[in-house]
Every structure is written in structure tokens, then in C-alpha cells.
UniProtKB/TrEMBL annotation:
SMART domains, per database record: ZnF_UBR1 (SM00396)
Identification of the protein by name: Putative E3 ubiquitin-protein ligase UBR7
Record region (Disordered): 209-236
Catalytic activity: S-ubiquitinyl-[E2 ubiquitin-conjugating enzyme]-L-cysteine + [acceptor protein]-L-lysine = [E2 ubiquitin-conjugating enzyme]-L-cysteine + N(6)-ubiquitinyl-[acceptor protein]-L-lysine
Organism of origin: Pygocentrus nattereri (Red-bellied piranha)
Keywords noted in UniProt: Isopeptide bond, Metal-binding, Phosphoprotein, Transferase, Ubl conjugation, Ubl conjugation pathway, Zinc, Zinc-finger
EC number: 2.3.2.27
Amino acid sequence: MAANEADEEATVSLVDVLEEDEELEQEASAVLGGSDSEKCSYPEGYVKRQALYACNTCTPKGGEPAGICLACSYKCHEGHELFELYTKRNFRCDCGNDKFGEMECKLFPEKEKANSGNKYSHNFFGLYCTCDRPYPDPEDELPDEMIQCIICEDWFHGRHLGCVVPESVELQEMICESCMNKSPFLWTYAAHVAVPPVLKVCKAEEEGKVEVEHDEDETKPEKEVSESTEDNKQQVEVNGTAGCKRKLQELEDTSAEGSCSGCRLGEMKASGQSRAQQGAVFWPSAWRTKLCSCTHCKNLFVDAGVAFLLDETDTVLAYENKGKTTEQAGGVEGRDPLMSALNNLNRVQQLEIIHEYNDMKTELKDYLQTFAAEGKVVTPEDIRHFFEQQQTRKRRRANAGQYYCS
């Protein structure tokens, strides 16, 4: 009885592992599913959103930043050291243009010298966050998740966001403090639409008290708060980057004068509700639907260079869902045949498959780690080579077993 229970537990464990691997595979394909792995995206112009890479071999730090599409990472930069940039919006593939010297794109060589509409950051040299460090960082021993700002699209350590990260951020979007200050009207939306800032609670058990860490502005005298707020309004430069040169008060006055009847932003301002203008801001799913799209507000978003916030399909989640749909449409319909086959095998056969699967999984992990260590992209040919080696080893084991047959 105990043996049967152990077998059942092992069988369920295998199913769980397979389902987990399938989920991870779907997440990976969601990022790549919206991009073409065979054709350079350059002819499509500035693609709304696509998976991008930077080649440290061809465009190392010290030169000009450049980005390449998924197909070029496979066909033109195989064996090179690449930085995976996840996805970025409104970008045109640079592969083979003047930034790459004598190197030509194998898929679409007829490119202009440069793409003036592209936006670059230190991400293209493998650096991230306000700490300007690589990821993963071999010198950073603190485990910390990286979160992408939906405006500047840089990645930040949770501990460097200037706020407490909400427990669940899977379906939320984040805007870093620097980007919030460059579009000051977003603070008004933050007070009404964003996820409320998390307060740090410290329980003093020995005193039987609970201490709550408030924002600094809440503990300042009223006069100091007023002066501090005025200083923020006149801020011209944020974190070393040129910010919004117009005072927040001027924007508020202009908004009040030009706002349309029924303007959501105007109504929010009139309510008087506010929040401390510090730290990154997290936004719940579907928050973009609550942004005002009256004529005046549309111009406000355009002038600030964030008109894409009014587009619900601009989100990474929408891009990934599209990628998943594409993958599913091109895949085999119905239940996974491996899962179906497992249910038709006896316990001994299931255990044998479990051992074979675990061995294969370990060897595949070790094989892929060599690519990660060298910063290389894994191509379909590499995967085929791995399984060809597996088949060769399997045949050797089978042939060796013949000598022990009686």
C-alpha cells in the first residue's frame, strides 16, 4: 500500500513538473511569440512593441548603443554576447547600420545609416536601475526582483524604487519616480487611481505598541511642507535627466483653463485628494481605462511624450497575450499527447519515465547554463544538437545492455 502511495506521489510530481515547465515555456513564447524569428523587423518601421537584444560583441560599451530584433539575434549574431532587453516600444532594428561598422545584416542589409526615432538607455549596454548595474549582478548577494517602468522601460531593483513594493505586482504596471516627475499631472491620477502606497509597520512587542512609518511630509510642520511642495513644483532636473521645465502650478492652471466639460482629470483635481509625490507608483490592471481622453488631456499626454498610456494595447500584458494566442493558433489542438500517454501506462512504466525525464532535465539544464555563462542565444539548431546527443547516448546504453542478455 505504501509503495502504491509512493508511486502515485511520484506520478503526480511528474505531472506537476510537466505542467510547470509548460507554463514557463508559454511565458517565454509569449515574449517571443509577437516577434518574427525568421524575418528582420526593419521593413515594418518602428514596431509598436517587439522583443529586442543588444550585441555586446558588435556594439560594446563606449560606442553607440544599438538594438537588434529577434530574427537578427538568431541569424546575424549567433555566438555573440547578447543582452536580452525583453520588449520595447516604437523601435526599429539597427542590425547592420552604421553603428555596426563593416558588419552587414544577413536578413535585410538595405538599411538607413541610423534610426533617429529609436530611444536608447544604459540597458543597451547591459546596465539597469538607478544603481547602473548589470543583471544578474555577480557582486549583488541580495535577492531582489527587477521591475520595469512602463514609461522609460528601464528595469529597477525593488529596493531602489523609493517605496515599498506591493505583494502582488503580476498584473500591475509601474512608473518610476523620475518619469512621474517628468509628467506631473500623473500624480493627480496616482492619488485616485493608483495602488495606495504601502506603509511599513513595525511591531514593538516588548512595548505592546505598533509603530507606522509615515511619509516624511506628514511629520513636517505645515510651513515646511508648503515650502517642500513648492520646491518640487519648480524642479527642473530629475536624477540628472532634464525633466519637465514648466512648473507644476503652471500645468495645473493651464489644465483648469483648458479642461473640457466632464474632464476626469479636472474632477480629480477639484476633489482635493492628493498623495506624497515621492517614490515609484504602482497601478492596478485596467487603470488606463480611467484616464481622461478629452481633447485637452490628449494634448497633455502628447506634450509630455506619454500618449501611449491612453492605448490599452500598449501594455506588455496585451503584447504577451497576443503572443500566446499566436503560439496556440500554430500549435497542436487538444490535450498534450505526453500527458495523455502517461495516464495509459502502468506504475512501473511511469516510474521509468520519471527517471528518464529527470535525467534529461538535469542534462538540459547543464547544457543551457553554458550558453548563459557565455551570453549566447540558444538557437533551434542548438536544441536539435542536444537531443541528437541524447539519442546517441540512448543507443549506446541499449547496445551495451545486449552483452548482459542471456
